[in-house]
Specification:
It is built from 16 helices and two strands. With 388 residues, it is an all-alpha fold. Helix 9 (205-222) packs across helix 10 (231-256). A two-stranded antiparallel sheet has the order 1-2. The model is unreliable at 5-9, 24-37, 118-122 and 373-381 (pLDDT under 50). Helix content is 59%, strand content 1%. The radius of gyration is 44 Å and the shape is rod-shaped. The longest helix has 26 residues, at 129-154. The protein folds into two domains: 59-256, Four Helix Bundle (Hemerythrin (Met), subunit A) (Up-down Bundle), CATH 1.20.120; 274-386, Arc Repressor Mutant, subunit A (Orthogonal Bundle).
């Protein structure tokens, strides 16, 4: 059986080289064992007989054949398949279809580098509707022949293919696989363009491109060129649906397996709420320190703090007094009132750190520093008290 000429000869791809290494070439002539002719047979004029060597499939071909025969082959039917000399018209008389060059296709590398390589015009292959129809007719006719062979095999009692049938099944499968690969490679740029146009923040770009390529292959299997539409019109919709399914799948996964709290990824006021709650507790503790005089304030220092921050007799006044107003009450200048206030606030701060924050060593160190430096201003205490 002759193999139809599907594509022009070119340098085989690495994938095709691997396929050739792992298959049996049935197109070769069968090997012949030499037979010794006896003298009696030679005198009688008998022609020497040859014995054909039975060719066996490789292990990879056996697995492939079993996979093909495990399920019914799907294909898009066409009236052209049933015409006289259909194979000759579909393959031999078909115009030559240009093959794509995929050396430029490195989508993940482009994404990491942040730049996109431009495709040379000579490398771009944009097929017309007529050219696409030729390719899809060749692709589906090969699948139709596989389906027809399956029906013949399954009608036999053994449901096992003969060597000739096994040869035909594998041959037509490889023809369909090569044409499918050519159609997919021609439309790789379509997947890349759709992935860049519909970027999803929650989906990795490489996963998006991979899902788009799988959708492209499924679209090749299901496209009916006889309806007169361009393949890109059908494939774009299939690719977008695949992107949508991928996003929904990831969303459901994250709902089931949520990540830990991360302020960089989550919009939350957790830190602000925690800080506000801590400051409120600290302010309440400062009030108790002043009211109970746990910081050992003098009578003048306690009077200044109570009037300055509205804490007379443990109750908040309507309005805190100024330095000048407090100075008039105790009979000193406002500058002296500021000095007394700062000294009292330093004592309160040390008491707060020692008992509320649990830093007694800091209290001893700060007491020594305060004794050496004198009066130290602490505006943070004003902020704490002004919040309540």
């Amino acid at each position: 059986m002759e193999v139809p000429s599907v594509m022009p000869k070119s340098q085989p791809s690495p994938l095709e080289q691997h396929r050739r290494r792992n298959r049996v070439d049935f197109s070769e002539a069968p090997e012949v064992k030499p037979v010794v002719v006896t003298k009696s047979a030679a005198k009688a004029g008998a022609a020497p007989k040859t014995t054909k060597v039975k060719r066996t499939l490789s292990r990879e071909d056996e697995k492939l054949l079993n996979t093909i025969l495990s399920s019914e082959q799907d294909f898009i039917d066409s009236p052209a398949f049933y015409e006289a000399d259909a194979k000759k018209k579909i393959y031999d008389e078909a115009p030559e279809i240009p093959k794509p060059d995929t050396t430029w296709y490195h989508p993940v590398m482009d994404d990491l580098s942040g730049r996109t390589r431009t495709i040379k015009h000579a490398q771009q292959v944009i097929l017309t509707g007529a050219q696409e129809k030729v390719l899809f007719h060749q692709f589906n006719y090969a699948r139709y022949r596989i389906w027809k062979l399956q029906q013949e095999i399954w009608t036999t009692p053994s449901r096992k293919p003969t060597p000739e049938q096994a040869e035909d099944v594998l041959r037509w499968f490889r023809i369909s696989d090569l044409i499918r690969e050519q159609i997919a490679n021609t439309n790789l740029a379509l997947v890349l363009a759709m992935a860049k146009r519909t970027r999803m923040s929650e989906v990795d770009f490489a996963d998006l491109v991979s899902e788009g390529n799988m959708a492209l292959l499924r679209a090749v299997d299901k496209f009916d060129a006889g309806r007169g539409y361009k393949f890109s019109t059908y494939a774009c919709r299939a690719i977008l649906k695949a992107f949508s399914r991928q996003g929904m799948k990831l969303s459901k996964y994250r709902q089931r397996f949520p990540t830990d709290f991360d302020p960089k990824l989550e919009r939350s006021n957790y830190l602000e709420t925690k800080r506000t709650s801590f400051e409120k507790d600290a302010a309440e503790e400062v009030k108790r320190i002043v009211i109970e005089n746990r910081a050992e304030l003098t009578e003048v220092e306690r009077t200044v703090i109570e009037h300055r921050f509205g804490l007379e007799h443990g109750q908040e006044s309507e309005k805190p007094m100024t330095l000048e107003q407090v100075g008039q009450i105790i009979g000193v200048t406002k500058e002296r009132v500021r000095q007394i206030q700062n000294k009292a606030m330093e004592k309160i701060r040390l008491e707060l750190e020692a008992n509320f924050l649990g830093n007694k060593k800091a209290k001893e160190a700060m007491e020594a520093a305060a004794a050496a430096l004198g009066e130290v201003a602490q505006p943070t205490l004003e902020e704490l008290l002004s919040r309540n």
